[in-house]
UniProtKB/TrEMBL annotation:
It comes from Haloarcula rubripromontorii. Pfam families: HpcH_HpaI (PF03328), MSH_C (PF25918). Coiled coil: none annotated. Keywords: Magnesium, Metal-binding. GO terms for molecular function: catalytic activity; magnesium ion binding. It comes from the Archaea. This is Malate synthase. The keyword Metal-binding applies.
Amino acid sequence: MSVTRHYDREFVRTFFTSPTAVDGEEDSAKMLRSAGQLRGLQAPDVWVPDNEDATAPNMREEGVENIIDVVSEQGADFPGEIHPRVVWHRESPSTRYQGFQQMLEIADPENGAVEHIDGFVIPEVGDIDDWKKADEFFTIIENEHGLEEGSLSMSVIVESGEAELAMGDLRDEMGKPSNNLERMFLLVDGEVDYTKDMRAMTPTGELPPWPELRHNTSRGASAAGLIAVDGPYDDIRDVEGYRERMQDNRAKGMTGIWSLTPGQVVEANTAPLPPKTGSWLLEAGGQEVELEAQDGKQVYDGDDLSLEADGDGGYVMRAGGERLELDEDELTEELLDRTAYIPSMNDIVDSMEEFEAAKEAGKGAIAMTQAATLVIDGVEVEVSKDRMWDEATYQAAQTPITLFQDVYEHRPDQHEELEEMYGADVVERATAVGN
């Protein structure tokens, strides 16, 4: 079975939830209206008017009305996709029926919202039979309202061991004539309820990081041609922690993450994109430290590593309590082992263009050289490393460019900010390379 995507987006960076009705406010849809007005890097790829956990049970009926009012009014101008989240539960038929009624009302063409709605998010799913129950409701709604079957996409939140195991069944179930599961779009982790379902505990009461769940969700999405999204990072002031979580996720193939505030949306929208400028890293004190670029050289200004010339053509390096006596070649090798380079957008485009030109000339592989002058305690050392580029290397390097191209195609409201970030020339080349 080959993986076929049934939607335009290949990447989703941001999954932003908004309460649909807030009790005690003169306008209970105030937060919904505010979210619907977000633009540029503050606007998510997927906006989720949340009529489940983010909205009190006694406000959900009003929340449905608010979704209809706000999406009808603002949906045409919202730059991302709109996927309301309704109630559902794998063990509660009455809750599933409530979710069906919510979707049925929101999707009614006479209410004016459905033309701007891309799909619905279903929480608290269970085994694959439960996913098919939700899919059947979607099909009924589409037929009831004269919508094309499959026109409403379905995303699920993985919040239980049952749902995690169901991802392994999805690849075989999609495409069967007894269901319309080709409508699937996002697999979203919900670590809070997953922790509860697994009866997991930590000494501090904080959530476990659940790297296994994030890996399994990314794998399940890849196998079924879907998109994986991580759950909420609720310490909204911990920007660095949010960045580290996203970096760890991207190494698993999971680009998207839940965003709780417009500030998190900006972070999540920009973090997966290649950096504007390249940077060199040096391993010192058990961690990678970014070197400071000064006059074309890369300067280390820390205390965890020191270097001095011994006056006889050799060098003495001290690192982690260890004293190393090295000649020039040994020093170069030691620093090569300790350094890494993070390429900029321009670097990646340059390399891809160079490989494309070489391939056009009949070469199957070429060497790409990275070189720098490192400065440690005033001592300068020239380092360079060659990396062989073949078709596989090219394809791997293309992923961040494909992401950029996907963003540029589907988010024209971000064009101006992207050109300010990279420069118009780099943006033009990045949108053309690889095509």
